[in-house]
Amino acid sequence: MHRRLSATAKGKGPVTESHEAPRTGRVKAQAPEHPDLLRKHSLKLIGRVTNKSAQRVRSLIPFFTDLWKGDTRPVGSDLGNGMFQFQFDKEADLVDVLEKRPYHYARWMVIVERWEPTYASSFPSMIPFWIKVQGIPVHLWDEDTIKSIGKDLGVFEQAEISSSAVRMRVQVNGRLPLMKNYIIEYSNGEEVTASLIYERLEKHCSKCFRLDHDINDCLEAKAQLRALKEKQEPSSKNTQLETQRDRDGGSKTGNSPFQFAAQSRLDLEKEGHREKYYQSTHHDESGHTYHRRQSNRSGHQGARIGQREGYTRSSSYRTHHSTDRNRNPKPHSEQDRSRYETNLQWRPRTEPSIRFSKEPSQPNAEALGECGKKDYAKLKNKGNSRKQHT
């Protein structure tokens, strides 16, 4: 039989020595020096989304896997923090993908660069764009001028100057605001403003020209709107005070010894509406207003219009139109009157003069004859017998 071990023998006793982690947030590591490891990562693409809320890396990886497939399909993985990577098997497939930049997903730009042995947290950040340079006079199109703009903007690659347009390919930092205008200063003191048009540029902020949000989420636009509202609040308060004074009977000035009893704005509006109404109702009878009123009245009243010529208006007729009381109706022509005339005539109701009794009337003896008298007697006796039976 086995012997039972104690808790101390099993190592379950209380811990006598306390161990606390330093938690400094900083450690030291050895730099990699393996050439094979560097050669392994040389066929990788490192990417970053510009808008994390609108671009999901999990759905982005299968999309670019199908888009970038060549002889073999690249293998993508999520690196976190809006970053991803793709491993290629051939150098040609990798170079072909880099030449077709820039890329976008869900209408927002995507930053893609070849892997580099760098320690910078801002990597990757460069997006190559073809940029049209507009606003420069035709006789000032010079490759050196375009090259100077490209070097100031980012990493200049090449320039194309034709008879109709000027273009340049520049790698721009996608994590910084885009530059849309440039001022070119010439040696003779003249200045020219050149505007930059980015080709294949998707959604971005039209206020600060950043690629990670639109104008609805722009902090600069919100701050400007807030400042504008604060400036408008004092003026709105002053207007409210002025309107309140007008309602109370006008503003009182200390320098004036007189006080004017001004009418309220509501009374002025009532008088204005009343004047407009009288002006509209006192038109000439030959005008459009009278004919429009007559046509509406004829459509609603029907046959009563035909009798209006002999009708005398009373004071209770259309009391809400004071101007129509004293106006005689315009007589209708014979053609209009014939439209509303009918052949129906009114007759008083008469009570029937003949009252029917429950008892059947006695037949005429001469009309019945001898045979009829006998049949009538039989029917009468038969009816009496039924009454007695019931």
Output mean pLDDT: 78
Quaternary state of this entry equals single chain
How far apart the termini lie comes to 120 Å
CATH topology tier name of one domain: Alpha-Beta Plaits
The profile of the biggest β sheet is: 5 strands, antiparallel
Q: Beta-sheet strand percentage?
A: 15-25%
Beta-strand segment tally: 10
CATH homology superfamily of one domain: RRM (RNA recognition motif) domain
Protein name: DUF4283 domain-containing protein
InterPro entries: At4g02000-like, DUF4283, Zn_knuckle_CX2CX4HX4C
Pfam families: DUF4283, zf-CCHC_4
Organism: Brassica campestris (Field mustard)
Structural summary, described in words:
Helices cover 34% and strands 16% of the residues. Among the domains are: 35-114, 2-Layer Sandwich (Alpha-Beta Plaits); 126-203, Alpha-Beta Plaits (2-Layer Sandwich), CATH 3.30.70; 242-248 and 262-300, no CATH class. The chain is extended. The strands form two sheets. A five-stranded antiparallel beta sheet has the order 2-3-1-5-4, covered by helices on one side. By secondary structure, it is of the alpha+beta class. The termini are far apart. It has ten helices and ten strands. It has helices at residues 7-10, 35-40, 57-67, 91-99, 143-153, 219-248, 265-281, 288-301, 334-340, 365-389, and strands at residues 44-49, 75-80, 83-87, 103-105, 108-114, 126-134, 155-161, 166-173, 181-185, 191-198. Residues 1-33, 229-261, 278-390 are annotated as: Disordered. InterPro entries: At4g02000-like (IPR040256), DUF4283 (IPR025558), Zn_knuckle_CX2CX4HX4C (IPR025836). Residues 176-219 form the Zinc knuckle CX2CX4HX4C domain.
